[in-house]
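Worked example 3 (structure in, sequence out).
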């Protein structure tokens, strides 16, 4: 997708500022390039997310932007010292389990989610657990939003 098309989407979103926009990518270096070029908007209602399912994927966040990590589906124990990866600028975590009936489906351990939730709480960062975790988490299930606080 050309940057110009993405910029058109940003302009359309700016024309309706009463909404909150969540942008999610598996290519976080694009955010970096666009920010460096000065074409990534810094709107209060724009949220830029990166997807990571393992410890080997890059998450993007920057001080001047609303950024979040989408860890879904969580495919391994995420080392919490790496979950933020950007000096405390991550403002939200979303985490969920793999759904469906894939042959080698990964079933997360509750300890993986507990550790992420503790890290989020200790960092004063909201965490949103997807419905796929509700039965596993029981009374520890949380669905927090950064704009509700």
């Amino acid at each position: 997708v050309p940057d110009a098309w993405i910029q058109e989407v940003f302009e359309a979103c700016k024309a309706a500022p009463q909404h909150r926009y969540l942008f999610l990518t598996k290519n976080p270096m694009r955010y970096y390039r666009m920010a460096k070029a000065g074409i990534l908007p810094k709107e209060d209602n724009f949220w830029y997310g990166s997807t990571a399912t393992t410890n080997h994927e890059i998450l993007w966040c920057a001080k001047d932007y609303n950024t979040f990590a989408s860890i879904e589906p969580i495919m391994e124990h995420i080392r919490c010292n790496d979950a933020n990866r950007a000096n405390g600028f991550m403002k939200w975590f979303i985490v969920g389990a793999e759904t469906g009936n894939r042959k080698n489906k990964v079933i997360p351990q509750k300890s993986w989610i507990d550790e992420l939730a503790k890290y989020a709480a200790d960092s004063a960062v909201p965490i949103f657990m997807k419905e796929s975790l509700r039965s596993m988490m029981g009374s520890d299930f949380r669905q927090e939003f950064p704009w509700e606080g």
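Notes: Residues 110-122 form the longest helix (13 residues). The chain has five helices and five strands.
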